[in-house]
Amino acid sequence: MTLHILGICGTFMGGVAALAREQGLAVEGSDQNVYPPMSTQLEALGIALKSGYAAENIGPDMAEVVIGNALSRGNPAVEAVLDRGLAYTSGAQWLAENVLPGRTVLAVAGTHGKTTTSTLLAFLIDRLRGAPGFLIGGVPADFDASARLGSGPCFVVEADEYDTAFFDKRSKFVHYRPQIAILNNLEFDHADIFPDLAAIERQFHHFVRTVPGRGRLIVNAEDANLARVLAQGCWTPVETFGIDAPADWQARLDAPDGSAFTVLHRGQTLGQVRWRMAGRHSVMNALAALAAAAAAGFDAKAALPLFAQFRGAKRRLELIAEAPDLRVYDDFAHHPTAIRTTLDGLRARHPDGRLVAVLEPRSNSMRLGAHADQLAPSLAPADAVLFLARPELAWDAHRVIDALRGEGHVAADVDTLLARLAALVQPGDTVVFMSNGGFEGAPRRFAQTLG
Questions:
Q1: What are the residue ranges of CATH 3.90.190.20 in the chain?
Q2: pLDDT tens for residues 171-202?
Q3: Binding residue per annotation — 438?
Q4: Range(s) within the chain of domains with CATH label 3.40.1190.10
Q5: 314 is in an annotated binding site
Q6: What percent of the chain has pLDDT over 70?
Q7: Was 449 annotated as part of a binding site?
Q8: According to the annotation, is 11 in a ligand binding site?
Q9: Superfamily of domain 318-448
């Protein structure tokens, strides 16, 4: 059986390809841009990659075509699949039918923190000798791939609320039918497919409906939107986590930047965590992962020392360069809440120098201007902001820059942005690049100039 995967270089679809290959299937794929690190990871697995979506890239002997959600009608490869009557499916459906049956599925959902929490949960189960399978929508630093089948009963999946495919407009996470589900947080996002917050809450409730009564929901006790979701109906035992709100799993911060905290379970102290992550949001991710691991039968107290070994996921507040008196981070933040929590965490970790934020508004919601009014307040912890406003941006970036507390600059291209950044930085600064895309390599291009 041979699979052709359209959109294979995306982190999710690349993970699907790796799992299919591990099952012994012949796999090939196409993408608009065949690029590292996913391309090198897939080529190392013996997966042939083709650039572009030409109809002829799909051979006549394909048993099935797996179509990513970035492709739509009018795409030449999609039209060829339909015209030739080839069998096709989505990545989420393929995973649900070919990998997840018979497994204890732990699904991590939420507007923010899915990749880090999924990575941490898989890491904890792995180090507790659970040998989990996983599919993570990022590059975990503690594993050599973003997906594997695993030999244990557990399978950890990053559960995205984005739609499944051009022919299936349900959220991807409704396919996974987990026994244990984390609801990390919920905010308005994906303005290209959801008209309002209520529409996203409805999809989260569809997800809640799929968790069995013998399972477990691990829910952020501090999120009013999630409370509304559960109020629509819940048939599964719920365990909550939080820092300020009363919860089953709680953390008491022992360091302002979240690098040390004490864990309490139902009021009883379990012990302290010391780790390299920063920010209040990271502590919340930690509580969620710990609670889910415990729900799967693992010893929570034995897990606490393991946090010190956790290296996180690439591009999740990743320190990529450190010169004398200057630090450069690369982060995936692309929603105002994530931007604010990232900056708050860095401010707590590096309280003495200036904080310089470099932002690419790349997500569909950002480009549509859905979060424009929230951006300036989210950037308040930064002393200086450089904003990449390409000519095709649908709204005026100066409405954000003019409302900033600190210094602000707009650049129309990456080269100009990097030149302004080089002129701006000074000893003692912490620089953080934030984008959910490649940013034309800007973070590492700037890091290389530091020598």
A1: 318-448
A2: 999 999 999 999 999 986 765 677 788 999 99
A3: no
A4: 100-309
A5: no
A6: 95
A7: no
A8: no
A9: Mur ligase, C-terminal domain (3.90.190.20)
Instruction: Calculate mean pLDDT across residues 268-284.
Output: 93
State in words which class domain 100-309 has.
alpha beta
Is residue 393 predicted with pLDDT exceeding 70?
yes
Ranking 21-25, 279-283, 329-333, 440-444 by mean pLDDT, the lowest is: 329-333
- Is 115 annotated as contributing to ligand binding? yes
State pLDDT tens for residues 338-367.
Answer: 888 889 888 988 888 899 999 888 766 666
CATH topology of domain 2-90: Rossmann fold (3.40.50)
CA distances from 33 to 29, 51, 360, 369 (A): 11, 6, 20, 26
pTM of the entire structure? 0.84
Q: Is 113 annotated as a binding residue?
A: yes
110 is in an annotated binding site: yes
Q: Is the dihedral of CA 155, 436, 161, 73 positive or negative?
A: negative
